[in-house]
Amino acid sequence: MTNRLFLSVLRMSGWTVALLIIAALQIVAPRTAHAERIKDLGAFQGLRANQLTGYGVVVGLAGTGDDSLDYATQGVKGVVSRFGLTLPPGVNPSLKNAAAVLVTADLPAFAKPGQRLDVTVSALGKAKSLRGGTLVMMPMRGADGQIYAMAQGNLAVGGLGVSGADGSQLSVNIPSAGRIPGGATVEQTVATGFDTSPTITFNLAEADITTALRVADAVNLAFSDKRARAMDAVSITIDAPQGAESRTMMMGLIENIQVKPAEAPARVIVNARTGTVVINGAVRIAPAAVSHGKLTVAVQENPRISQPAPFSNGQTAIEQSSKINVTEEKKPMFEFKSGASLADIVKAVNAIGAGPSDLVEILQALKQAGAMKAELEVL
């Protein structure tokens, strides 16, 4: 029975054997808390969404359109010309129920003709609201100028705007923009070339040389060869077979390989506007002693008014009375031991009751003293 099972495995295709090897590695290999799938670390080069834009006209508005705006009028003239209607020269229709809009959408990778896309419609001119409007059929073009989709449909607007006769106005959200779920139909695909090039490239979302090397090693271990090579801190080049089917199967296997990414570099993020301070777990503090106090000076003015005696021909005078108080908070000095971790930093800062602004000053001083080996980034 064992020999027959072994022979049946030998008759399997190379991709089936690779799949069994990857599955076995995922079962046998210890699952660490930080291991992640390769697909969560980045994406294959070329397999991205493409932006589409277009210029169109929304009609059916309840008097909240562009009125006699020039480019709105030209857009309506272009729409009606498709149906053989030509406006006489010099005629400028009042278009309170129409608005010129810009339509945007994202075309996913491998999108096929006939698939539907969600589109966002935004007013270009002085239209107050697009609520209740309908987008007239218009083409959507890519960066190369070619038409990849056609859009049309009724808008869903989440905003609301009203105004009174006295000029008062009330606006909820943004009524001059809306969406059309499934409002565009794909007309042609975008050539990616992933099935014809001799190699494919996987790009990490965050540049890290160690992680790139680990991804390449994991792919080579799973397929028992040397097809993957880390080219730099972001890109891993992988030799790929010809044919869309074989290449797609290989990419699917690679995406599900478990890899332990490298630890993030020691970094402290400070948002000076909001007082937010974020310290990652890789930050370590060398031996250092910190003393942080606060000096508060309060000046209180209590002017007094002096009134002259009746019939004394005197004048009312203001006598100044000032009171100055100086308060200095005495906080004990605390010490960071060698290799102090994030928990030690938080404990020491909480012990002296330092606020966000005080913490920023302490971290900057530790950085300048050379006691904190971390990147300090101020937003």
Give short descriptive properties of this protein.
379 residues, single chain, disordered N terminus, alpha+beta
Description of the molecule:
The protein is an alpha+beta fold and 379 residues long. It has seven helices and 23 strands. It has helices at 2-10, 14-28, 70-81, 209-223, 244-255, 342-351, 356-368; strands at 36-37, 42-44, 50-59, 98-107, 116-123, 134-141, 147-154, 160-163, 169-172, 177-186, 199-204, 228-230, 235-239, 258-259, 267-271, 276-279, 288-290, 294-301, 304-306, 317-319, 322-329, 334-336, 375-378. Strands 3-4-5-10-7-6 form a six-stranded antiparallel β-barrel. Strands 2-11-13-12 form a four-stranded antiparallel β-sheet, covered by helices on one side. A hairpin with an 8-residue loop joins strand 4 (98-107) and strand 5. Helix 2 runs parallel beside helix 5. The longest helix is centred in the N-terminal third of the chain and has 15 residues, at 14-28.
